[in-house]
Amino acid sequence: MRMSLAQRVLLTWLFTLLFLIMLVLKLDEKAPWNWFLIFIPVWIFDTILLVMLIVKMAGRCKSGFDPRNGSQNIKKKAWYLIAMLLKLAFCLALCAKLQRFTAMKLAYVFIPLWALLIGGMIELGYNIFYVRRD
């Protein structure tokens, strides 16, 4: 289940284009679609990424794997999994708010996004300022 860089770029571009076209049609009131329907390309793309990530993480469970070789790698993959789940929570909360399924304040809708951004800044700072002690 390995994709080349060109395939990943093409897939990302395709799902982004589909999402933006559907979003523009909804915002121009040309299509009376549900907000959850608008976000389907985003969720399909996220599902593909989650499946690929889970398959890579499950590969560590096979026999003959040396856990000493990838302790940092599993931490990075765990962060990716948490980030994807935070993004999913934000998208679901945003769709529920836009569709008026809930009377949640907009500040509460953005909590998963803020947590994702703070975690991303911490990860970036860790990668920039981490000094290996060998």
From TrEMBL:
Keywords from the named record: Membrane, Transmembrane, Transmembrane helix
**Where does the sequence pass through the membrane?**
36-58, 78-100, 106-129
Q: What is this protein called?
A: TMM60 protein
Taxonomic lineage from the root: Eukaryota, Metazoa, Chordata, Craniata, Vertebrata
